[in-house]
Amino acid sequence: MAKKKKNAEEVSFTPTGTGIRTNGEIIRSTELPDPTDKNHDDLGLSDDDVVDMFEQMYLQRRFEERAMQMYQKGKFGGFLHLYMGQEAISTGTTYALNADDDIITAYRDHGWGLVRGVSPKEGMAELYGKVTGCSKGKGGSMHFANVDEHFWGGYGIVGGHIPLGGGIAFANKYKQNGRVTACFLGDGAVPQGALHETLNMSQNWGLPCIYAVENNGYAMGTAVHRHSTGEIVDRADGFDMKKMVINGMDVLTVYEKMKEIAEDVRENSEPWFVEIRTYRYRGHSMSDPMKYRSKEELEEYEKLDPVERIKNYLLDEDIIDDDKVEEIKDSVEDTVMEAIDFAEESDFPEKEALYDHMFAEDDYPFHT
Amino acid sequence: MAELQFREAIRAAIDEEMGQDEDIFVMGEEVAEYDGAYKVTEGLLDKYGSKRMIDTPISELGFAGIGVGAAMNGLRPIVEFMTFNFAVLAADQIINHASKVRYMTGGQVEIPIVFRGPNASAGQLSATHSVSYDAMYAHFPGLKVIYTSEPADAKGLLKSAIRDDNPVLFMESEQMYGLKGEVPEEDDFTIPIGKAKVKREGSDVTVVAHGKMYHVATQAAEQLAKEDVDVEIIDPRTVKPLDMETIVKSIRKTNRCVIVDEAHPFGGLAAEVGYLIQREAFDYLDAPVQRVTLPDTNAPFAKNLFDEWLPSPDQVIDAVNTVTYRK
Question: Is B285 in CB contact (< 8 Å) with chain A?
Answer without folding.
Answer: no
